[in-house]
Structure formats: structure tokens, C-alpha cells
Amino acid sequence: MPESSTTIVGNITKQPEVHFANSGIAMCSFSVAVNKSKKNRDTGEWEKEVHFFDVISFGQLAQNVANTFQQGNRVILTGELQVRKYQGQDGTEKNKVEILAEEVGASINWATASITRNEFQGEQGGNKYAGNQHTTAPRTAPQATTPTFDEEPF
């Protein structure tokens, strides 16, 4: 299956968890459920289908996802489909489709959101990530800061 870009809208079903690669890059994994309704041609009734997607994000996006979202949040995400082969417990080769997230945002169809701009840390930023490494404690809203710009940001 060739790689392709996809956009999905759904609810986070697995709490975002941050892990670090040997290289030190942050990786965040979580799952999203997408509900789809279709009309049954035989009965005329609407039937719901649920599709589950495993999602992986990297770097600053991974850190932002872990600090922002929790299980149950509705998100919009865009990313590349990736097929990963692995050996199942029964010894057979299996395929798993994952989404490598490029963008993740809150869906504000049924909720509101506030945006806090992160300060750029750069490669030599010195600040280690200290975000959510799978905590079930409720998150508190980050303190709003007013960013300063040398030039217009847009």
C-alpha cells in the first residue's frame, strides 16, 4: 500500500503517551476512533461504523499533543499513512496501518479551545521536555504568556 496523506476527525481513545527514542526525540502515540454512519440499503436504517487508528507524532508536535489532549478529546489530524509489518503472537506476518501525524488540532464543533503559543526552544534550547508521560491527573490550563516578535508573525 503506498503512503498517502489523510485527514481524520475523531475522538482520542487512548491517552497520549510520550516516549523518547535513543536519539532523544519525543514520540507520542495515541489512538483515535472515527465514527461513520451509512444507510443500509436493505433496511433503510442508518448504521454506525467505528474505525480505530493508531497515531504517532514526533518532536515538538509530540510534546504539544501530550500537553494538550487527553482521552475523549475530539481532534482533527492530518498525516501520512504508514503500513508496518510485524509478527503476530501466532507467528503469522501481520500488517498494521498507522498515521504519522503532521498536524493535530482540536475540533471546536462541540467544544471551545484556547491557544497558547510556545516559545521556540530550538535545537540548543536547553529545556528538557517535562510534559505528560501518561498521567491520569487532570491537567491545569497553562499560564498565558504574551509572545514578543521581532517582526509580524503572519
Summarize the structure.
The chain has 154 residues and is mainly β. It has one helix spanning 59-68, and strands spanning 5-20, 26-39, 46-58, 74-87, 93-106. It is 6% helix and 46% strand.
What would you call the shape? flat
SS content category: mainly beta
Strand content: over 45%
CA(first)-CA(last) distance = 38 Å
| Main beta-sheet annotation | 5 strands, mixed, barrel
Descriptive report:
The chain is mostly beta strands and 154 residues long. The protein has a domain at 5-106: Beta Barrel (OB fold (Dihydrolipoamide Acetyltransferase, E2P)). The chain contains 1 helix and 5 strands. It has one helix spanning 59-68, and strands at residues 5-20, 26-39, 46-58, 74-87, 93-106. It has a 5-stranded mixed beta barrel with strand order 1-2-3-5-4. A hairpin with a 5-residue loop joins strand 1 (5-20) and strand 2. The termini are far apart. Residues 124-154 have low confidence and may be disordered.
List keywords for this structure.
154 residues; 5-stranded mixed barrel; disordered C terminus; OB fold (Dihydrolipoamide Acetyltransferase, E2P); mainly beta; 1 helix
Give the arrangement of secondary structure elements.
Elements: E1 5-20, E2 26-39, E3 46-58, H1 59-68, E4 74-87, E5 93-106
